[in-house]
């Protein structure tokens, strides 16, 4: 049975910071971000937009009423949870009005969580071919003011509908994983922002890729030459490019895949790291910005989550996949509100003030269809 991605949607907050402004404010040459990291803008989420509202927005953009009646599992991959117990998937299930007899869960392993969710969705459809699974990757990447990771922050969510006979991409059965118990990026419960061993994390990203890709080649007999494009986890675009360069031994293959890679980072460059969603945002960018792909093409994926777990897998494009996409997405991203450094520092780092009953005071108004409108006695209330 063919199982895979039938629909894919994306949501980002309305605010954007130009990284040239960040560089100037931090006394850094803007080319370090533009050329050194290959990033140009960062999506900035206000306090009223979190992984729940962004996830709901990404999913609402692709789901029909019929989908909502058929979905029986909602999986949210995230590492920027709003609750240690209640899954964001439960809130999103409620906001979207999905039929009640569904399983809703959250999955965590740094930037890898949603890839695990995709595998679980695939197994579920193999068992129940008539059902549909909603997989959402939603994260807000915040490293803190003047931190090393500051230029790689971002916010956004990707939603995917996983079904039998999908209309975008069939997931192949060639997945290989690797687990390494390391501390390259982590966030203890008592910390607001992640702790990062920046340089070590970049080395681990690439070493996990090269060793897992060796294993993948041995296990499947496939090589890079078999693929039309490669999508990688994109903490910042240069990291993905270096990953591709680390495994492409043949010059012609490297040149061809680098052309596709440039198409696959169009959105990531102006959104920033969205952790679990980054690799799927890259897929969306590739599909919506490449004119070189065609049905039947094989796409290779490298998912990496610090800590660390990674996975290499592939998918095959389906005839007519273009019809499921949005060709005006870049235009919409370009219409986001550009904010100044002062606004960025205020908006992105604003905290919710609670009174003695745990109810929010002075939460800003947010007109978006999905937004946090109040915290009421410690319960987060969203606009439906
Ligand atoms: P840094 O020390 O600020 O930067 O840290 P750098 O000195 O390494 O420079 C970066 C690049 O800019 C270098 O290029 C410089 O040469 C270049 P490279 O040599 O690497 O090709 N550069 C310039 N280029 C042009 N003009 C200039 C200029 N100056 C310098 N004037 C670092 C960078 C990535 C470590 C930092 O941003 C950081 O800590 N980021 C967060 C961690 C991260 O993203 N790690 C990536 C791998 S781990 C991962 O992907 C998982 C993650 O997503 C989390 C999860 O799984 O949940 C992070």
From TrEMBL:
Q: What keywords were assigned to this record?
A: Acyltransferase, Transferase
Detail which positions bind substrate: 148
Which molecular function term from Gene Ontology is one that the record holds?
hydroxymethylglutaryl-CoA synthase activity
According to its UniProt record, this protein's enzyme class is transferase
What is the organism of origin for this protein?
Answer: Streptococcus suivaginalis
Q: Which CDD domains match?
A: init_cond_enzymes
Signal peptide range: none
Protein name according to UniProt:
Hydroxymethylglutaryl-CoA synthase
The family classification in the record reads: Belongs to the thiolase-like superfamily. HMG-CoA synthase family.
Which residues does the annotation say bind (3S)-3-hydroxy-3-methylglutaryl-CoA? 29, 143, 242, 273
What are the BP-aspect GO terms?
A: acetyl-CoA metabolic process
The EC number on file is: 2.3.3.10
- Domain annotation Hydroxymethylglutaryl-coenzyme A synthase C-terminal: ranges: 178-251, 256-347
Keyword Acyltransferase in annotation: yes
């Amino acid at each position: 049975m063919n199982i895979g991605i039938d629909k894919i949607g994306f949501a980002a907050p309305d605010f954007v910071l130009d990284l040239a402004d960040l560089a100037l404010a931090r006394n850094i040459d803007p080319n370090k971000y533009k050329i050194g990291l290959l990033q140009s803008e960062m999506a900035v989420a206000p306090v009223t937009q979190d992984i729940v509202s962004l996830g709901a927005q990404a999913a609402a953009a692709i789901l029909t009423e019929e989908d909502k009646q058929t979905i029986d599992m909602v999986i949210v991959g995230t590492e920027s949870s709003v609750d240690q117990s209640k899954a964001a998937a439960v809130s999103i299930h409620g906001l979207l009005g999905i039929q009640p007899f569904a399983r809703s869960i959250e999955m965590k392993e740094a930037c890898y969580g949603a890839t695990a969710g995709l595998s679980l969705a695939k197994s579920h459809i193999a068992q129940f071919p008539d059902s549909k699974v909603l997989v959402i990757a939603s994260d807000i990447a915040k490293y803190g003011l003047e931190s090393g990771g500051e230029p790689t922050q971002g916010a956004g969510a990707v939603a995917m509908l996983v079904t039998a006979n999908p209309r975008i991409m069939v997931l192949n059965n060639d997945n290989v994983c690797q687990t390494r118990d390391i501390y390259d990026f982590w966030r203890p419960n008592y910390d607001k922002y992640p702790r990062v061993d920046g340089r070590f994390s970049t080395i681990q990203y690439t070493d996990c890729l090269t060793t897992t890709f060796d294993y993948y080649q041995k296990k499947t007999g496939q090589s890079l030459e078999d693929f039309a494009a490669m999508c990688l986890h994109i903490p910042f675009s240069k990291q993905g490019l270096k990953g591709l360069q680390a495994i492409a031994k043949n010059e012609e293959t490297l040149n061809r895949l680098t052309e596709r890679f440039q198409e696959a980072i169009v959105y990531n460059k102006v959104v920033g790291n969205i952790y679990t969603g980054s690799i799927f945002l890259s897929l969306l960018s590739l599909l919506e910005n490449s004119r070189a792909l065609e049905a039947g093409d094989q796409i290779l994926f490298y998912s990496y989550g610090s800590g660390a777990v990674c996975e290499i897998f592939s998918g095959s494009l389906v005839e007519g996949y273009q019809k499921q996409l949005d060709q005006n997405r870049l235009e919409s991203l370009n219409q986001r509100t550009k904010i100044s450094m002062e606004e960025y520092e205020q908006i992105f780092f604003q905290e919710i003030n609670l009174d003695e009953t745990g109810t929010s005071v002075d939460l800003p108004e947010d007109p978006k269809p999905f937004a946090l409108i109040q915290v009421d006695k410690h319960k987060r209330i969203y606009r439906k």
